[in-house]
Amino acid sequence: MIGEENQTRFSSELFGEGKIWLSADFRTELLNAAIEKAGSINQLGRVLGYRSRVHPGWSVRQLLTGAQPFTYQRLVTLSEYTGCPMDRIMKYQVPRRRARNHQNFVTRADL
């Protein structure tokens, strides 16, 4: 059935390969609250399990801009750290093409 095929494709876009993309507005709100609680972006990177000695916050910056998806386990860790329930977080899951922040794109008004 054609409808089933489209639904499967959309579901794999959202849930495939263990990558979770969140809408820009919610993602930045959630990460900003976590950075505030952690005290710094580098400390939040350590809380989430990023182990770079030089800059553990680099991956958090990538998450913040939508250049990198969340893994499910890191999203669970972030949920527990911020106290935001996973069911609320998952309501904001979007396909990759809708995850980038709006400020990453140049509009005619910017020219």
What labels would you give this structure?
6 helices, 111 residues, two-stranded antiparallel ribbon, 2 strands, mainly alpha, globular
What is the secondary structure topology, with strand pairs?
Elements: H1 2-15, E1 19-20, H2 24-38, H3 41-47, H4 58-65, E2 70-71, H5 72-82, H6 86-90
Antiparallel strand pairs: 1-2
Quick recap of the structure?
The chain is mainly α. Helices cover 54% and strands 4% of the residues.
What would you note in describing this structure?
The radius of gyration is 15 Å and the shape is globular. Helix content is 54%, strand content 4%. Mean pLDDT is 80; it is low at 1-13 and 103-111. It has one domain. It contains six helices and two strands; from the N terminus they run H-E-H-H-H-E-H-H.
Q: What shape does the CA trace take?
A: globular
Q: Helical residue percent?
A: 40-55%
Largest sheet: 2 strands, antiparallel
Q: Indicate the low-confidence ranges by residue numbers.
A: 1-13, 103-111
Number of strands: 2
- What class would the helix/strand composition place it in? mainly alpha
User: Which band does the percent of strand residues land in?
Assistant: under 5%
Encode the helix/strand succession as letters: HEHHHEHH
Mean pLDDT equals: 80
Q: Compute the separation of the termini in Å.
A: 46 Å
Tell me the count of domains: 1
Strand order of the largest sheet: 1-2
Q: C-alpha Rg, in Å?
A: 15 Å
Q: What is the overall number of helices? A: 6
